[in-house]
Design brief:
With about 80 residues, the protein is mainly α. The chain is about 60% helix and about 10% strand. The protein has four helices and two strands, in the order H-H-H-E-E-H. A two-stranded antiparallel ribbon has the order 1-2. The model has no long low-confidence stretch (mean pLDDT about 90). InterPro entries: PTS_EIIC. This is Phosphotransferase system EIIC domain-containing protein. Keywords: Cell membrane, Membrane, Sugar transport, Transmembrane, Transmembrane helix, Transport. It is found in: Cell membrane.
């Protein structure tokens, strides 16, 4: 999308949407795994949070949490699997 932004402004919007959605992937994976195991809503939120942090997408640096990208999906799956046990 970055290449096409010079030709039409819709591609800048699409790039923003794609980047925003990629940050939610680890949390969505955690929530869907927890829902598959019929966990309570609180447990779903905990598994989603654990999967998000376990993916490496959120890192604690210099006293603050930083969102660094999508993280590692293998770590997301492993963390979600351990969390539902």
């Amino acid at each position: 999308f970055k290449y096409f932004m010079d030709y039409h402004p819709i591609f800048k919007t699409l790039l923003g949407v794609v980047v925003a959605i990629q940050f939610t992937v680890p949390a969505l994976i955690g929530a869907l795994v927890a829902m598959k195991f019929d966990l309570s809503p609180l447990a779903i939120a905990v598994v989603a949070s654990a999967a998000y942090v376990g993916s490496g997408a959120a890192q604690f640096k210099n006293g603050a949490w930083m969102i660094t990208g999508i993280g590692d999906l293998i770590n997301t799956m492993i963390t979600a699997a351990i969390a539902v046990l």
